[in-house]
Structures are given as structure tokens and as C-alpha cells.
Amino acid sequence: MITAQAVVYSEHGEPKDVLRTHTYEIDDDKIAANQIIVKTLGSPVNPSDINQIQGVYPSKPDKTTELGTSEPSAPCGNEGLFEIIKVGSNVSNFKVGDWAVPSNVNFGTWRTHALATEDQFTRLPNPEQSKAAGKPSGLTINQGATILVNPMTAYLMLTHYVQLIPGKDWFIQNGGNSAVGKYAIQISKLLGFNSISVVRDRPNLNELESELKGLGATQVITEEQNGSREFGPTIKNWVKETGGEIKLALNCVGGKNSTGVARKLANNGLMLTYGGMSFQPVILPTSLHIFKNITSAGFWITALLKNDEELKNKTLSKIVEWYENEQLVDAKSLETPFVAGGAKQLHEYYQEAVVNSAKGKQLITY
Amino acid sequence: MSIQAQAVTFTDFGKDLPNVLKQTKFVIDPANLKSNQLVLKALANSVNPSDIHEIFGGYRIPRTQYLNPDEPLYVGGNEGVFRVVEVGSDVKFKKGDWLIAKLPGFGTWRSYALATIEADDPEPFIKISSDDDDSLSVEQAATISINPPTALQLLNQFVKDWADDGNDWVIQNAGNSSVSKFVTQLAKLKNVKTISIVRDGKSDEEIKELQDFHATKVLTESEFLAEDFLSKTLPALIGPKGKVRLALNSIGGGEAVTQLANSLSHDGFLVTFGVIGGGQISIDPRIQLFKNITTAAYWLTANTKKNPQSKVDTVQTLLEYYKQGKIVDTPLNKIQFKENENIQKVFVNAIVNSKDGKQVIFYE
User: Fold this and answer.
1) At what angle do helices A205-215 and A179-191 cross, to 10 degrees?
2) Enoyl reductase (ER) domain location, by residue (chain A) (predicted)?
3) B181 and B131 part of one domain
């Protein structure tokens, strides 16, 4: 018997009000042939997890009594890294000790253990397996636990819509200092694309600029430069030197900032807006829109990958490969280890993590 | 006998139209026609908002036809039908053919044109009718180059899989524009339904007119902007299976355009075209992400420059629809030009009157 705990809610609301820890038993002697038991290695708090609990996110888990709750409840969390601790007799994709991530959103990753069918998980190499395969490095828990959203978002936005010519073409992004922004900088460098990252002006701008350039940023500009007409020729010269075009803009800020990055686009350029729960409207002047034929579209990884297993697996493998080859640096999380049987219940760890999310991405490790 | 011709020309951009636009007289001598030349006589040509803004300096359409290569005058206008009156020996058109220019920038505001078929552009014209074919009226011919092709391409370029079961909808502002009246007619041919939004205070007759052009529903701006439009009016109108797949914006930006985007169903397109007054489009990022709404732009001139054959194909389709009586032309204000009049004055007046409707100049 395994005593498992999961963070659940029955009513939507603020996490501080509606989360609770549900404790239940998983009978590891009675698992079905296609089932696996996993234990959690780490699961983070993403803004979309919070929005799901609040009931304002368009994708959310069903409320059920599957875990044995007295009233229908939904599990929290969408990203997480798990280790297989038991496999059913017909399970072919996994053996004990393998690492895995949920195949779909809404699985509920804020938990200590889970009983699942093997198709609910996708295998990742654990560090021993990477080493045995001759890779320079294995995945860390943070890398595995945060692989499904931010790095995949960056990779897919850069590759799935517009064909950028390596060595020549450019993309521009606002939120250059965000987690997705930093992945986009690194991945564009790996793919040979030039980048312009817009960041907020700040006292230690030089430091940030060197950090981003260290990750592979071609150019870093401030919001003020993004909005300035005088600065336009400088950007035109950068682009002219490579003989390419700015074909893609990534927007996670909105407002004037979205107008600024859209203005830098070449004719027929595309602006992709992502992560749009809490920011300002996307603003496009009609003249720019019509005469440069700029298109503005949304990027939502959940919808894109929902019915495209192949694209998801291909993207995941690429990110894993870069991590194993030490070509990609993960965005660091603030890690808090969960202590079973301690004074704090599991949901309290996540409630604190939600509050602390303002300071950076929070990861609960097990 | 040589032909005394005149054209409305400009050399600089500007808004002071009576001074910016000039009358230029010129002479065409058919006796000296080269084998690759033809003489065209205007049957009728039109004034479009884009023509005016081109003269203001806003729309930059590369103009191709100078009256005299040594004197780079621009001839105004982009739409109009010409009748072939003389042809050189190598020209495939016949006297009596009705032609329109394939590309924008021809300069249609003129009583005659001497055209040269160059080796690098062997097909600058589309034959749309002839003297012995009465299936197309001069009115239809003179206005087939801009509004009807815009409407047809708007319907076909973004949504490619319209359902013919009556559940797919288009919503459009500027519901009483000429393009909108073609959109409603062309949508009807596909069994696609239309919501046309008009300014408040339109008369019953004006609304009835739009219904006659097959608008499924005509709404005033107040009805459209009402608080319960998205939650009640729209769902009741389109029904549980209805989908608003295309929203057409030709008025600019602001709240009404945001509402247009918010009216779209999942995977819909907001397409902005023909906006002259500027403005900004403001879209809720949540609908871009979670309803997969795409904001796109449309410009006929850009399409035609990129792929001239697309214009030919679009016009051919429209000619077929006119011949079969499937669409009708939209109202216009007819102005009769007389040979001895000053063409510049006729056009300056027509431009002033454009705010009351499309002006078309007919020649004797």
C-alpha cells in the first residue's frame, strides 16, 4: 500500500482559499496490466495552474471522485517530473526507474504519487540512461519538471509558423528577460537565427544585456528604443548586414510594446502572441497592418499539441537532446523540498509557492 | 485623323486637389500607330477612395503609364473600361473589344489612351466584353476592377472551407459600402449568412436595400455595441450550430473593431481592408490564444502585384456571375462627360461628391 497525497479543489477560487490535501491509498499489489505507478520528483507552479484553480483558464481538469474524495474534485498542476516505481504486466514503454512527464495537460502534478495508464505518460531519459548513452549530461529535476511549457513554447514559435533562414533572418521579441524569452534566445542561436530582444530599461541594463548576449542574443534593446522612430535605422542596418528580414515577432507584453515589435516586421511578417492571461491588448495600427500585410495570431501550446502527438514528441526530443548536450541552459526555479509528515500539509507548500511566484518560478521537489 | 485627348494628371502629391490635379491635353495620331500599339477610348471610369488617397500621397501605387516619357506625369485613377478603337498589326485585340487594366496604376482618368504592348508585359489588359456582347453593362464594366474583386477575394482568401449548410456567418462593418453589398451577394451564393453593421439613424429604405443585396441581418452600431450583443443577440441570431468565421473591418480601429473580433467563433479571422483614416486595432490577447483568432490584412493591390493572374481569375469569375445574373452591380452616380469639357473640373467635382456615393464618369 502506498499512501499518496494530492492537492485538489472542489470549487474555483483563490488558491489560498480552495486548495486542500487529499490523502488516499494506492494498492500497488493490484495494479492492472496496462497501469503504472509513479512518484513525483518535482512539480512547478505556472501562471496557468493558478488561473485553472481560479476558474478563468479555458482548459481545466474535470472534477471527479476518482481519487476517493467525498465531493467531486479536480487535481492541480500541469507540469511535473515523475519516476516510475511499479509497472503492470503488459506495460512495454516503461520500466521501474524510468523518468516520465504527463502526456497531456490537466493530469494533476501537485501530488506525491499517481496511479496511471502507461499512455498517460511520456518517457524521458533519466541521468543514468543519458550517461550510458554517452551524453555529456543528464537531465536535472528542474529541467525535466519544467520541460513541457516554456522551452517547447519557444521552440515551436520559432519553427512552426515561419521559415527563418539561418544566418540571415531575424525575429524580434518583447519580454526578452522572461523564461520563454531566454529559451527563445538560446534556441534561435542554436538554429542560427538572429534575434532582437526588447527588455525594460533598468539601472543594471548592461548586466542584463551581457547575460542575454551570453545566452546567444544577437541584439538587446530597451522598450524606449523599441518605441522610438529615431532608433529604427539602427535596426534596419543590423538586418541589412545579414541580408535577411525580420519575419517573426513574439509578443507577451501587449500594448505599445506589441505595436513596437510589429512595426519592425518586414512585409508579410507574423506576430505571435503568447501567454496572454494578464497583459494588455494587442495593438496594431491599421496602416501598418494593411500596407505591410502583417498578420497577428495567438500561440497556445495546449491547443497546438492537443492532437499532434508527433509534433509534441519531436519537440520534446529536441529539447532533451540540447539539455543532454549542455547546449541549453534551463531557467532556474526556486526549489522547496516537500517533507512528508512534517508540520505543513502538501497544499500549504503550493499555497506558499503561489504567493512566492512573484519572485520567480517555484518548484516543489520530493 | 488625329485624336484630341485629355487626362487628369498630377506631378506632386497633395490634398489641395483643384491645384494638385491638372488637365493635360494630348494628341494621338492613329496614322503613326506602331505594330505593338493600340488606341483606347474611355467608356467609363470611376473615382475610388484609394484613387484620392493616392493623390494625397497615402496609397503608394507605382504608376506605369506616362503620357510622355520625357515628362513624368501621373495620370489619376485605377478603374475604368476602355473600348479598343485602333490596333497595330501585332496586337491581338480587335476594334470594339472592351478592356480593363490588369494592374493598378494604369491611370484611367483620361478620355483616350495610347497603349504599347511591351515584350516584358505582354498582357497588360483583360478583355471583359465587346461591342457585340450585351451581357455586361457599361456600369458593371466600369466598376469591376476594385470592389467586386475585393469582396470575392475577402471571402475566399482566409476561410477556405465554408460550410454550405447555412451555419457559417460573416460579420462586417460599413455594411452599406459597395464592397459590403458584394460580400452579401457573393456569400449568399455559397449559402453563407451575413451580418451587416451600419451607422445608427439609417432609414428603413436603406436597411431594406441591404436586405435586397442579401444581407441576412442588418444591425445598427448601437445594437452591435449593446452590452448583451455577445451573450444574447448574437447567439440567438446564429443558433447553436452557427459559427462566425470571418469578420470584415473597413472602418479603422476602436471599440467597434474589438467587438467585431469578439464576435468571432473559434478559429475565426478578423480581416482589415481599405481603411484610409488610420486608427488602431486593439485585440484581447485571450481570444488570440484561446479562440485562435487571427488578425489579418487584405489589400487587393498587393495581391495583384504578387500574382497578376489572381486578378484575371477573380474578374473572370465575376463576369460569369454577372452574365448568369447571380450578382448585380451596386448603385453609382452617373456623370456624363462631354468632349469639350475640361476633364480636370469634371473629376474634381466628382471627387468632392464622392462622399455621397461612388462617382462614375461616362464618355460619349
Assistant:
1) 40
2) 17-355
3) no
Look at residue B52 and give its three-state secondary structure. helix
Stretch among A143-147, A168-172, A226-230, B214-218 having the lowest mean pLDDT: A226-230
The per-residue pLDDT for range B305-349, each reduced to its tens digit, is 999 999 999 999 999 999 999 999 999 999 999 988 999 999 999
Is the CB of residue B252 less than 8 Å away from at least one CB of chain A?
yes
Residue B313 resides in a domain = no
DSSP string, B275-304: --S--EEEE-HHHHHHS--EEEEE-HHHHH
- Residues in B closer than 8 angstroms to A293, CB to CB, are 297, 299, 302
CATH class of the domain at A150-302:
alpha beta
Backbone angle region of B223, left / alpha / beta, with phi > 0 → left and psi within -120 to 50 → alpha: alpha
A279: closest chain B residue by CA: B285
Inform me whether the C-beta atom of residue A54 falls under 8 Å from chain B C-beta atoms. Answer: no
Q: Which of A283, A286, A300 to mutate to test the interface with B (most CBs of B within 10 A)?
A: A286
Q: From CA A84, how far away is CA A96, in angstroms rounded?
A: 5
Q: Are B135 and B180 within one domain?
A: no
Catalytic residue among A24, A57, A161, A323: A57
Say what the ipTM of the complex is.
0.89
A275: chain B residues, CB-CB within 8 Å:
289
- Test B296 with A295 for CB contact under 8 angstroms: yes
